[in-house]
Automatic annotation (TrEMBL):
The gene is topA. Belongs to the type IA topoisomerase family. NCBIfam families: topA_arch. CDD domains: TOP1Ac (cd00186). It catalyses: ATP-independent breakage of single-stranded DNA, followed by passage and rejoining. It is an enzyme of class 5 (isomerase). It comes from the Archaea. One of its GO terms (molecular function) is DNA topoisomerase type I (single strand cut, ATP-independent) activity. It comes from Candidatus Micrarchaeum acidiphilum ARMAN-2. Releases the supercoiling and torsional tension of DNA, which is introduced during the DNA replication and transcription, by transiently cleaving and rejoining one strand of the DNA duplex. Introduces a single-strand break via transesterification at a target site in duplex DNA. The scissile phosphodiester is attacked by the catalytic tyrosine of the enzyme, resulting in the formation of a DNA-(5'-phosphotyrosyl)-enzyme intermediate and the expulsion of a 3'-OH DNA strand. The free DNA strand then undergoes passage around the unbroken strand, thus removing DNA supercoils. Monomer. This is DNA topoisomerase 1. Residues 681-692, 718-727 have a biased composition (Basic and acidic residues).
Length: 727
């Protein structure tokens, strides 16, 4: 009997082969694709990889209109040229499947991994999802270490079909929502004479809504003045117990009373209390993204990509988890001992072991599929600087869960000055405990003078600063991921990608996220005329329904039917208000694409696209004015509001992925380009010069050849053995 194990990625396929093969696995090439084979009992095991999704959703038929409701799964290479590389992986799996009677889905144990593996097994076996249990099993593992992979193979599970149905419903509804409303939005804009590929999705819309509402709160915020009355004893500050005082007369009264009584200040109360600070819980994905952003400034998408890479190389556990639990079945003492072999953690591991502290601090969040993120104990090798930082963050956070509570002494003083009470609070770490293990956590310490109740205090100054209330803060990427989680929008694996899409569509910008003028117009137009697209309640209801599918409490067909009904209702509303939406977006789109004034006739210079999709700049007074300028492709062009003093064209900022932004004027013939041109010419001239031949390396000294053994005797014997008369 032959069995085919399907891994989600080539790196995991190799680890499975090494773990199960016990030194007997062989690598086999099928074109450019490698798979693995090994004996198993009386049969044989093949291990081959997918590269993520080998199948994707597509519409039935090729109409460009909307609404679309008829869809199907199809091989990814047939739907998108950029997925052409997946063809060889699918064909390799098909070739191996012809020899196999059993299949094992070893893709990541989550809904996406289930969808990836189940679609492949459906294709290979020719069976529908509900029937694949007769020919397939499921591997469940949270790390790619040999032990976990062997344990998983030794306790195979039936296919998790309910998770497949939940994942399939999510894919289908997301695709339907995205394609229909993206086409509707693009159509509305193009009907106003403008063109830009727009998109809005089932989660994109509500995510944009959260940001737009925050933007409006900030815009409508009116700062209010307030006053603090502060007393100083040398370097120590005490604040009036009234706190923020919004009536200036009240603040002045407190200030005057304190000033008049400053020579008779006395401690009216002195308290001190010890507080225990428990360790932070281990990381789930969201808290890891938040902490990596806070400590290192890592982008949430980059954090997920690095964590996935560390997982695939067996250094950490599966990162796409919602859990803050570390089950005892993980073998926690062994992991700590293995971490102790790394010099960076040897002292911490030894201390934990000597105290026998193997019960971790945990958080409330749970995940049925995976535990919290933890280091496996395998010492990382060949990782990048950023990966090393992220691994250290995870390892220290894990170890700190076993540390003793930190002890903090919180103390406060109340001082009576002229009948006014002033308060000062301080804190000092008296026993660091787990803080010694997790260097990324800091408790802010603050000193106060060592005074007792009834003791006189020398007041050196009294101040009454005027302050203003601050507007709500804008979200960072990491903060927005946390907010989306609170609102149950998206999944732990998709939230970072959703935010990235909003950036790509020019709906939002900046590290402290601001909704662009165009993004705000899109939101306003939809909120007024088709609020279901940006309303989070619709999305949350569908999320709950999909959760019920995964638990076997609601059939997939019912959720899809309900989702399509909501979709068609929303499209009907959109179409009835299409003209209004078109008009509202038209002006904003124009202004968003205006870079400045045309130096020839004073018209607006706007970003346009050629019929081939190339972006360039043209005058809004075309055809009267035919002035145009080229633009870099695959770059975001941002107006600066400034113009070049020489050519008088607008200066724009060029932003390209992975490269530092720069500013430049639009005219390629401007004198400001002369230095740049000279540099290019010098480079070209140097390249055209005949290259001086490099000196030949000295030949290495020849090794003395060993004398070859003489063969004369052998030849003589052969001649003697040869029958006479034969040549």
């Amino acid at each position: 009997m032959k069995t085919l194990i399907i891994a989600e990625k080539p790196s995991v396929a190799l680890r499975i082969a090494i773990a199960l093969g016990n030194g007997q696995h062989k690598s086999v090439r099928n074109g450019r694709i490698t798979y693995y084979t090994m004996p198993h009992g009386d049969g044989e095991i093949y291990v081959a990889a997918a590269v993520g999704h080998l199948f994707t959703i597509r519409q039935k038929g090729k109409e460009r209109a909307y609404p679309i409701t008829e869809i199907e799964w199809a091989p990814s290479y047939l739907t998108n040229k950029r997925s052409e590389y997946t063809k060889e992986y699918l064909f390799t799996l098909k070739k191996l499947a012809q020899e196999c009677s059993t299949f094992i889905n070893a893709c990541d144990y989550d809904i996406e991994g289930t969808v990836i593996g189940t679609n492949i097994i459906k294709e290979l076996s020719g069976l529908q999802a509900e029937a694949i249990g007769s020919v397939s099993k499921r591997m469940k593992f949270s790390t790619t270490t040999p032990k976990d992979l062997l344990d998983s193979f030794g306790s195979l599970l039936p296919p998790d079909i309910n998770n497949f149905y939940a994942g399939e419903a999510r894919h289908m509804l997301d695709w339907l929502w995205g394609i229909n409303f993206s086409r509707a939005l693009t159509s509305a804009l193009s009907s106003s004479g403008q063109y830009k590929q727009l998109s809005i999705g089932r989660v994109q819309g509500p995510a944009l809504g959260l940001l737009a509402k925050r933007e409006k709160e900030i815009a409508s915020f009116k700062p209010e003045p307030y006053w603090n009355v502060l007393a100083y004893s040398g370097e120590f500050e005490f604040i009036n117990s009234r706190g923020n005082i919004f009536a200036k007369q009240e603040a002045e009264s407190a200030f005057s009373a304190a000033n008049s009584g400053r020579d008779n200040a006395v401690v009216s109360e002195a308290t001190s209390a010890e507080q225990l600070r428990r360790p932070y819980p281990p990381f789930d994905l969201t808290s890891l993204q938040l902490e990596a952003s806070r400590v290192f400034g890592f982008d949430p998408s980059a954090t997920l990509a690095m964590a996935q890479s560390l997982y695939e190389r067996s250094f950490i556990s599966y990162p796409r988890t919602s859990s803050q639990k570390l089950p005892r079945t993980l073998g926690l003492p062994r992991i700590i001992a293995d971490l102790g072999k790394n010099p960076a953690y040897s002292t911490i591991a030894a201390e934990i072991a000597s105290k026998g502290r193997f019960t971790p601090a945990e958080g409330p969040k749970e995940d049925e599929a995976h535990p919290a993120i933890f280091p496996t104990g395998v010492t990382p090798k060949g990782i990048t600087g950023s990966e090393e930082k992220l691994y250290d963050l995870i390892a220290r956070r894990f170890l700190s869960c076993f540390g003793e509570y930190a002890k903090v002494n919180n103390f406060s003083l109340e001082i009576s000055i002229g009948g006014e009470t002033f308060e000062g609070k301080g804190s000092k770490v008296t026993y660091p405990g787990w803080l010694d293990y997790y260097k990324y956590a800091k408790i802010k310490e603050r000193d106060l003078p060592n005074l007792e109740k009834g003791q006189r205090v020398e007041i050196t100054d009294i101040k009454m600063p005027e302050l203003q209330t601050a507007p709500p803060k804008r979200f960072t990427k990491a903060g927005l991921i946390s907010e989306l989680e609170k609102h149950n929008l998206g999944t732990k694996a998709t939230r970072a990608a959703i935010i990235d899409t909003l950036f790509k569509r020019n709906y939002i910008e900046g590290s402290s996220i601001r909704v662009t003028e165009f993004g705000m117009t899109v939101y306003d137009a939809l909120e007024k005329n088709c609020s279901m697209i940006v309303d989070e309640d619709t999305t949350i209801t569908l999320e709950k329904d999909m959760d019920l599918i995964s638990k076997g409490k609601m059939p997939e067909s019912e959720v899809l039917k309900k989702g399509k009904e909501v979709l068609l209702t929303a499209i009907e509303t959109f179409n009835s208000n299409k003209e209004k939406i078109s008009e509202e977006m038209k002006e904003s789109f124009k202004s968003a694409n205006v870079l400045g004034k045309c130096p020839k006739d004073g018209g607006d210079l706007v970003i346009k696209r050629s019929f081939r999709g190339k972006q360039f700049v043209a005058c809004s007074n075309y055809p009267k004015c035919t002035n145009t300028y080229p633009l870099p492709q695959n770059a975001k062009i941002v107006p600066t509001g400034n113009a070049c003093e020489f050519c008088h064209t607008p200066i724009v900022k060029i932003i390209r992925r992975g490269k530092p932004p720069f500013e430049i004027d639009l005219d390629p013939n401007c004198v400001t380009k002369d230095a740049f041109k000279k540099k290019l010419e010098a480079k070209a001239e140097k390249a055209s010069e005949p290259q001086k031949p490099k000196p030949k390396p000295k030949p290495a000294a020849k090794k003395r050849e060993k004398p070859k053994p003489k063969k004369a005797k052998k030849q003589k014997k052969r001649a003697e053995a040869q029958p006479k008369g034969e040549a």
